[in-house]
Amino acid sequence: MRKFRILLAAVSVVAALGPGGLRAAVPDPAPPALRLPEVAEPIAYSLDLTIDPGQAGFHGAVDIDVRVKQKSDVLWLNAKELEIQKASVSMPSLASGTLTPRILPGGTDFVGLAFEQPLSPGPLHLRLEFTGVMDETSTQGLFRQKDGEDWYAFTQFESTDARRAFPCFDEPAYKVAWNLTLRIPKGTSAVSNTLPAADTEEGGRRVVRFAKTPPLPSYLVAFAVGPFDYVDAGKAGAGKTPIRIVTTRGKAAQARYAAQTTGPLLERLEAYFGIPFPYAKLDQLAIPQTVTFGAMENAGLITWAESILLAPSAEETVRFQRVQASINIHEMAHQWFGDLVTLAWWDDVWLNESFATWMADRTLIEWKPEWHEDARRVEDTSRVMFTDALVSTRKIRQEIASDDDIVNAFDPISYQKGAAVIAMFESWIGEEKFRAGVHAYLVAHANGNATERDFLEK
Q1: What's the start-to-end Cα distance of the chain, in Å?
Q2: Are 236 and 266 in contact (CB under 8 A)?
Q3: Contact 42, 77 (CB under 8 A)
Q4: What is the pLDDT of residue 96?
Q5: 24 vs 47: CA distance, rounded Å
Q6: In angstroms, rounded to a whole number, what is the distance separating the alpha carbons of residues 375 and 384?
Q7: Is the pLDDT of residue 97 over 80?
Q8: pLDDT band at 258 (very low <50, low <70, confident <90, very high)
Q9: Catalytic site residue 331?
Q10: Mean pLDDT throughout 242-257?
């Protein structure tokens, strides 16, 4: 694996003179172990990135409006495998206009900003300029792939990989609006969570400024750059949500099934939740190859392993249709249960994933009874019981104490066992009461965060 360094703007220890002569050097504060300290929180982001999929390197700047919650002389953010080239801070109370903090090393996941005088509670504006490298082997963070003769750039930020693409508060509870600008080569296009608000040319590059997002955590932000083909899949739902299937060059014909079924499935989910689709558009984006994930529920931009989303007409078997539709429902269900209302911390991953798994089973049973999804659901439940019977098995909801715990939470216990528990709970309380509770939960916490307890209280 490549190793990168956080660019240090100053030496890591400071010698000070006192009445008794030279004092011992003062060490830098240690970075956080897992979670950011509750010193500050983001209010809004503006992210400007220059990306050429044909080149490994990228660079950009992020402006973050921050609310300082308690007095501190160090502000920690998440950053991984990035070079922080410049940092500046402005506050309404500053007569000088800006401060230039000292950049502290933060191990593999953090970067610190140290100030000569402690920051007082209140608003500030933070700007960071940085560079990074798009990976060509993994599919985490911001990565690139070649398909045919063309290069493409994609993102995968769940769970903790937005920090590989830009410095941020990379935890699900920090849910705010984002403004994204991408500077890309001519002859390419870009997609993100929202539709473009402006598309111009500057300095020989295409500049795409996307509409401001609703509140999103960093792990649900997504974008891609390349010479894409677009398939118009029509509009669906109460808000006439525009739907597109986005493929690499020359593969639009393979999107037939996804284009045909996404709209009707979206409308079924809308009817169940009793809430219109929560985002202005829905793109389904095919990635040539993925590692560790098959599809991802980014708000308004679901990303897929190409082999699951697309198929030549001769390979569009019933098995392909069943798998594609099931995953499509799962990821679209997350647009409400996971995106509109987001978990507060990763210990509630099970609730997100079990609900979406249960919803996919439930919807397919009604939509395609000839597929006998009820029998497959029993098979899945029986299979996960072997895992559940092991002495080493974990609880459905388990405290997250390390990065490994986050990774381990995305397993059959969260998906299949959790879905079985949801089904049992619905059977016990009754279908209509359960659906009313789901609706109340989503309305109460829309565009915010919630916990398992919040769900059960509804």
Answers
A1: 46
A2: yes
A3: no
A4: 67
A5: 41
A6: 15
A7: no
A8: very high
A9: yes
A10: 98
